[in-house]
Design a protein that fits this description.
elongated; two-stranded antiparallel sheet; 5 strands; disordered N terminus; 44% helix; mainly alpha
């Protein structure tokens, strides 16, 4: 079940989805970047076809180059599963974000040093990532 909460910047209904522990367990069985994108996509829109916002037809979007494309050749709709999430505009792989999220869910008092070692990034990068994740988790818990 995806976590759903409102944006702090607008009244838009969904902005960030953080996967549950059960979804993270599924990801860790196949920890590739495409599996992480698929997990995020399913958390955001659900499994199966969705209504394409452009052609208004039920469509099974296909993943190509980290972007989902409408299945119909006449429709050029593209949906970015990362847009509007805590992971957006990050050069860090979604896989590393998920590893860190799992570590934080397991131990809320995870140190920045331990986080940076766990995902293989600098202290400053880990500090920013931990802050973003903890801010979103705090917002969900309210």
């Amino acid at each position: 079940m995806p976590l759903l909460f409102k944006s702090r910047k607008s009244s838009e209904q969904y902005v960030t989805y953080l996967p549950s522990r059960e979804h993270l367990a599924l990801f860790f069985r196949h920890p590739e970047e495409e599996a992480a994108l698929e997990l995020l996509w399913v958390n955001r829109v659900g499994a199966g076809p969705i209504i394409c916002p452009q052609c208004k037809l039920p469509s099974s979007f296909t993943l190509e180059d980290k972007i989902y494309h409408c299945q119909y050749h006449f429709c050029d709709q593209q949906l970015d599963p990362i847009k509007g999430t805590v992971f957006a505009q990050s050069l860090i792989s979604l896989r590393r974000w998920y590893i860190l999220l799992d570590a934080i869910l397991e131990n809320r008092n995870l140190t920045i040093t331990a986080a940076s070692r766990k995902i293989g990034v600098s202290y400053m990068t880990a500090q920013k990532m931990v802050k973003k994740i903890k801010d979103e988790l705090a917002h969900v818990e309210r």
